[in-house]
Amino acid sequence: MNVLLPTALSVWILAMGTTPLEAKAPAAPHAAKAHDRDCVILLHGLARTRRAMQPLADLLAAKGYAVVNLDYPSTRHPVETLVRSHLAPAVDACRKEGFRRIHFVGHSLGGILVRHYFQDRPAPPGSRMVMLGPPNKGSEVAGRLRNCFLYRKIMGPAGQQLDATPQSLPNRLQPIPLEIGIIAGTFSINPLFSHLLPGPDDGKVTVERAKLAEMKDFITLSCSHGFLVTDREAMHQTAHFLDHGAFDR
């Protein structure tokens, strides 16, 4: 299988999309009518940009949420640095605006950043998070590729932190003070990676490794990892959980 790693990595990169733009400082959000005391911070996944989250941002803004579609240099720094330099200022901006609740939507790595942020911070009561394809217990794919030069070069320090060992960063995080809903994909466009993953998966993360013991709700959709952010049903379910604290069944 090792001889296939460069090919597999190429498929990973194509599936993930474009490389990150230079991240911009978060702008202060402005609320509309329906949820004028609720802010939502969106975080894209590894090797993506805020453009990947824009359809969801538009949907949530149309529903009245104040939306911060955060851009951050996911391949340049470890999780701890990304949280400190990009996520923390975005949350501070929402707090300064006086929003009653601060919600989050994280795709893949984005959700891990939120979990890390709240390891030692409180959240406004009633705040929620939807996680899309999160490697909450790591990913066997990341573990297998972490010693590959191309993977290290392209995915950067944060990509080295997402393996499935008990010592990996996701597996060391404690429960956080948010109501969490998780959407896992069950369709893969990458048979090479799925060969490394036990059980149903989205081509990057297994259904089981997406789960958290403290999650409030959980659903699976027939969708691959990279497309969970733009899938129509996934976007509907994300908005429903933010509205009601449960997925639409």
Topology:
Blueprint: H1 5-16, E1 38-43, H2 54-62, E2 66-70, H3 79-96, E3 101-107, H4 109-117, E4 128-132, H5 140-145, H6 149-159, H7 169-172, E5 179-185, H8 191-194, H9 207-210, E6 217-221, H10 232-244
Parallel strand pairs: 1-2, 1-3, 3-4, 4-5, 5-6
Written description of the protein model:
There is one protein chain. The chain is of the alpha/beta class and 249 residues long. Helix content is 36%, strand content 14%. Strand 1, helix 2 and strand 2 form a beta-alpha-beta unit. Helix 3 packs across helix 4. The N terminus is likely disordered.
Number of contiguous helices: 10
Give the structural class: alpha/beta
Rg, rounded, reads 17 Å
- The shape is globular
Could you say what the CATH topology is called?
Answer: Rossmann fold
Helix content: 25-40%
What's the CATH H-level homologous superfamily? Alpha/Beta hydrolase fold, catalytic domain
CATH class: Alpha Beta
Question: From N to C, what is the helix and strand string?
Answer: HEHEHEHEHHHEHHEH
Number of domains: 1
Query: What fraction of residues sit in β-strands?
Result: 5-15%
Straight-line N-to-C gap: 40 Å
Count of strand segments: 6
Order of neighbouring strands in the sheet with most strands: 2-1-3-4-5-6
The average pLDDT score comes to: 87
**Based on the structure given, which CATH architecture is correct?**
3-Layer(aba) Sandwich
